[in-house]
Amino acid sequence: MGETPSLQLGVVGALFLSVASSVSIVICNKALMSNLGFPFATTLTSWHLMVTFLTLHIAHRFNVFENKSIDMKTVILFGILNGISIGLLNLSLGFNSIGFYQMTKLAIIPFTVLLETIFLNKQFSQKIKFSLFLLLIGVGIASITDLQLNLLGSILSLLAIATTCVGQILTNTIQKRLNVSSTQLLYQSAPFQAAILFVSGPFVDQCLTKQNVFAYRYSTVVLAFIIFSCLISVSVNFSTFLVIGKTSPVTYQVLGHLKTCLVLGFGYTLLHDPFTQRNIIGILIAIFGMGLYSYFCTHENKKKHADEVSPVSQIKDKETTPLLMGKNMGLQDEESHEVMKASKDSLV
TM spans, by residue (predicted)? Predict the structure, then answer.
């Protein structure tokens, strides 16, 4: 019971760190890619992961955290899966319209719910499902502008959804079942994620942009933004593992859609992106859905905690009841003895 407030504070801190760092890196990358003309998203992500690993390695050398051994096969497969999911999401964006890509991101939540229900026997109440439905409707209204379908793009989107869902579920499952922290898991898996993206990134980016990352002419401003983006990515990657470990993959996706709403708002405020009444209505519906999700999750967690505590109190009652009954029976015997003695005295 005493650990509950500190645990809640840790969750709030993780959520805040995730939102702040993700919104910051989106704005930084948007300026880098749209304004400065650096379109190599997948290669940039591999650099992000390399810098993340180097930062954690330095932190480990200074004993900031303790490393824990994890089965190498698990770490390699996990790292490769996450790396592939990032590449597939970028390919999905490249081969689909922006509207269909947003639909792909929206589909991650119901697909995650389905997988957790089937394979992990996790139950989601109707209230939770309703709040998620409202959230998805709101984000859809705010962000989806066009839907253009093509076979290759649809296949890439399905693969991106599957790998992203499984990767995020594993992020949560590995931390809890192997009792490792988010830092320990990220430290061991980041090199494999970085390696697969470093090898495949230039090829993926060339397919999408028709440009070669190694032939690009890097100016001082571009290099400064790349370094800044890599530094922010350390916080983004760390908070991602932290949020999924402390909450759940579904909650992380809900948080992701909050970031989408904030990015739309900051894009309008800072970058003067077009903003319509439809965007405003969609964001308001999405925020209302997030509020309901947060309320229902908190209410159900409190109820679950109360149900877990009540059997313990019942056991304690059962243990103390015989003692109380014994004392009461003893008192009753003494009282009846006194009554019989008094009646005998009166007869005499």
Answer: 38-62, 74-93, 132-149, 155-173, 216-238, 277-296
Residue-by-residue DSSP string for 119-164: HS-----HHHHHHHHHHHHHHHHHH-------HHHHHHHHHHHHHH
Alpha helices in the chain (DSSP H): 4-30, 41-61, 72-95, 98-119, 126-143, 151-177, 182-209, 220-246, 249-270, 277-347
Rounded to an integer, what distance in angstroms lies between the CA atom of residue 313 and that of residue 318?
9
For 183, phi and psi rounded to 5 degrees?
-65, -45
- The pTM (predicted TM-score) of the whole model is 0.79
- Tens digit of each residue's pLDDT (9 = 90 or more) over 112-166: 999 999 999 998 999 999 999 999 999 888 877 766 778 888 999 999 999 999 9
In SS3 terms, 302-318 reads as HHHHHHHHHHHHHHHHH
End-to-end CA distance of the chain: 63
Q: What does the alpha-carbon distance between residue 238 and residue 190 come to, in Å, rounded to a whole number? A: 10
Residue 10's contacts (CB-CB under 8 Å, 6 or more residues apart) are 246
